[in-house]
Specification:
alpha+beta; seven-stranded antiparallel beta sheet; 6 helices
């Protein structure tokens, strides 16, 4: 096979995976169930260790008692410690995604200062490196954001971002 044929086969497989995840999201019932189906589909397909949703509560975003998905048990400790944080607008990835309503990707948060990434100490303790956040819009308004995590460093991946945006848009 030539390189072009292999590329076309990979694209076809990616499209089929996206279609399957989007179908699962659309088939789910409530908004929260659709959100969990989206987080599960993105984590399982793209091998993320954790997905956490952050919701506006007054002048901060919080994760307490909000939908999340933990496919890797090692990431549960990071989830449990993360929910103790609250992020005002423009602070941390959740606050910046909320304020800017656009994707933010950090290939490795471990080299950040606490000002740049308030959970840096927790990330180091739990082995979290890569983090990226995606806004969830509903009827043109910010509903929440989902943050995904990896235990390894990963450069910004536009294919992963597009996949996540397409799946989340199906909610």
């Amino acid at each position: 096979r030539d390189l072009n044929s292999n590329f076309c086969l990979v694209q076809l497989q990616l499209n089929k995976m996206a279609d399957a995840v989007i179908s699962a999201v659309k088939a789910a019932g409530s908004f929260d169930e659709k959100l969990v189906a989206a987080m599960k589909g993105i984590c399982d397909t793209k091998k993320f260790a954790l997905a956490n949703s952050w919701w506006v509560d007054g002048d901060v975003v919080i994760a307490t008692n909000k939908p999340y998905y933990v496919p890797n048990p090692k990431s549960q400790a990071y989830r449990e410690k993360s929910v103790e944080f609250k992020f005002p607008s423009n602070k941390g990835i959740p606050g910046r995604v909320w304020a800017g309503q656009k994707v933010e990707w950090k290939d490795s948060v471990q080299s950040f200062t606490p000002e740049q990434y308030p959970r840096v100490t927790v990330a180091k303790e739990c082995g979290i490196h890569c983090s990226f956040g995606v806004p969830v819009m509903k009827d043109g308004a910010f509903k929440c954001m989902v943050e995904f995590f990896l235990f390894e460093k990963k450069d910004r991946d536009e294919d992963v971002i597009k996949f996540a945006e397409d799946v989340i848009a199906a909610i």
